[in-house]
Write a structure and sequence with these properties.
Strand content: 5-15%
CATH superfamily of the largest domain: Vaccinia Virus protein VP39
CATH class of the largest domain: Alpha Beta
Number of domains: 2
Largest sheet: 7 strands, mixed
Bound molecules: S-adenosylmethionine
Number of strands: 7
Radius of gyration: 21 Å
Helix content: 40-55%
Number of helices: 13
CATH topology of the largest domain: Rossmann fold
Structural class: alpha/beta
Order of helices and strands: HEHEHEHEHHHHHHHEHEHE
Shape: globular
Oligomer: single chain
Length: 312
């Protein structure tokens, strides 16, 4: 069996969600179902958990785990960006809370067949949803130099984006770059020697960038941040755990905008747009895992939890 995913910040999530016994909760990133199981075990049988997961392998695992709660769990094999449409179509009422635990799970990362990691050599896949057409192989071998630079810069904040993109273009003229190992070797031989001494592997940022691009992760997150608020009841809570600065910045900025409401330029003395805030930010600073949690689960070290509450 592939290694089970250890969910992060579980105690903090339960405290922030304030799970109601008869509530309706949305878990947008079901994964191995650990957070979902904890939420369900705090509800009466009338409580409902709606879950989204785009990876069919994770769904099979979570379905077995959540078997004792089958009658109160509705799992959709879909992207969470479609949650609002699905909730309306399925006539599910307004939500008491939403949880997003972004990124990939240990099960996905440590399964070499999925091609997420440079720790083992595998086909450059990186699709979370196996039905998606474009793989990391397609992006690496078919994108123009400028497109590659944009992906590496925007989604990986990669300092050596130009150099790496150029090296990819010249290598693939000879033969396609097929595997995680080939790409990681190419990056190692391209970045300056001093970059190899840093704490993170020089391929980390490019791999992150490719994964974000293959799965359109930031677009999905932007959509659910807006749609999610619409789906919440007043006092419903929106909890988002992110694992890198791009996601965290997006959550922080959008929550602040939705709290402020008004979009008038700052030099206008009086508001003319008339927009009102729709939420209150509960976490002025993100909640991070305790040292103890990081010791037990090193993957938790970069987790940041931000929480907002719907008003009105
Ligand atoms: C960090 S894991 C979640 C772990 C989960 N909270 C648990 O307790 O096991 C993230 C999961 O979300 C899924 N995922 C990421 N983005 C998604 C999206 N836009 N729509 C649906 N599922 C997504 C991934 O496939 C992965 O299984």
């Amino acid at each position: 069996m592939k290694k089970m995913h250890l969910a992060v910040l579980t105690g903090e999530i339960l405290e922030m969600l304030q799970v109601k016994k008869h509530g309706i909760y949305l878990d947008g990133t079901l994964g191995d179902g650990s957070h979902a199981e904890q939420i369900l075990s705090r509800m009466d049988p009338e409580g409902i958990l709606v879950a989204f997961e785009q990876d069919k392998d994770s769904i099979s695992f979570a379905q077995k785990r959540l078997q004792p709660f089958k009658s109160q769990t509705k799992i959709f094999h879909d992207n969470f960006k479609n949650a609002r449409k699905v909730l309306i179509k399925e006539k599910i009422g307004l939500l008491n809370g939403i949880l997003l635990d972004l990124g990939f799970s240990s099960r996905q990362l440590e399964n070499p067949e999925r091609g997420f990691s440079f720790a083992s050599d595998a086909f450059l896949d990186m699709r979370m949803d196996q039905r998606t057409k474009t793989t990391a192989f397609d992006l690496i071998n078919n994108s123009s130099e400028n497109e590659l630079i944009t992906i590496f810069k925007e989604f990986g904040e990669e300092r050596w984006a130009k150099r790496i993109a150029r090296a990819i273009i010249s290598t693939r003229k000879i033969q396609p770059i097929r595997t995680t190992g080939e790409l990681s070797k190419l990056i190692l031989s391209t970045v300056p020697a001093k970059s190899k001494k840093y704490k993170i592997h020089p391929a980390t940022r490019v791999f992150q960038a490719l994964r974000i691009a293959v799965n359109n992760e930031l677009e999905a997150l932007s959509t659910i941040l807006d749609d999610g608020i619409e789906c919440l009841k007043p006092s419903g809570r929106f909890c988002v755990i992110s694992f890198h600065s791009l996601e965290d910045r997006l959550v922080k900025t959008r929550f602040r905008q939705l709290e402020k409401g008004c979009i008038c330029p700052p030099d206008i003395p009086q508001c003319v747009c008339g927009r009102k805030g729709v939420l209150k930010v509960i976490t002025k600073k993100p909640i991070v895992p305790t040292e103890d949690e990081v010791k037990k689960n090193p993957r938790a070290r970069s987790a940041k939890l931000r929480v907002a509450e719907k008003i009105g």
